[in-house]
């Protein structure tokens, strides 16, 4: 059983939680201080982590389960756990049920607004895996889904939504959508041949990379806007935003239409580092 669990955690790239978790913490801290005038209670942190684990685990497992046939036929993904038979569909389904249960339990431990938004969050977590079958806007849907990390953290400790929370949500959503477009360039030809939808398969790799840059510019502007509107975030936060912007710029310099060999480096190490940088500089600004 432990071996199967390890395989499933590897299948869903559990370590990629680093993309969203720092932003969930960022939304939690900023929201709590702006609205409540204090740091979050320690039990809030516990339930937010549980909710994040449940939500991401359920979403990624669903994605692998729903895309099993696509993964099996794609040489790049044929060795994933389900197509290769390392785990059964029933085992993954059980893991999904447990993950959603954790999300529901956590939401009910937080506040009524978290429960109200639970159906929308679950809908996005489920529908994303199907969007590649009917719209090239699938990257935007993914961004809006993972963008719930900071928004969910904010809601969890405040029980309300403000324009600041929405701008933070959009900043993360646009960032996620942008790097997902970059990631999708690897499968542009395969997606086109199989009738699957993505920005690179619809518009080509070159235009796809341009669109990704546009999404990241918009994300940078949204993060920058928080500096001006919160009344809380100062120069240390601003330095973090500038560093994040430079990291996005460097990320795009690594990938060109003629050379996609460094997509994975641009995708994981760079984006994982960026989210941690944003959280650390936000936290440093608040503490100092």
TrEMBL record:
EC numbers, comma separated: 2.5.1.39
Annotated compartments: Membrane
Transmembrane stretches, start-end: 20-39, 45-66, 86-107, 113-130, 137-157, 163-184, 205-229, 263-284
Membrane topology qualifier: Multi-pass membrane protein
GO cellular component: plasma membrane
Signal peptide range: none
Family: Belongs to the UbiA prenyltransferase family.
Protein name: 4-hydroxybenzoate polyprenyltransferase
Source organism (scientific name): Alkalicoccobacillus porphyridii
Keyword match Ion transport: no
Names of the cofactor(s): Mg(2+)
GO molecular function: 4-hydroxybenzoate polyprenyltransferase activity
Keyword Membrane: yes
Keywords tagged on the record: Cell inner membrane, Cell membrane, Membrane, Transferase, Transmembrane, Transmembrane helix
One GO biological process term: ubiquinone biosynthetic process
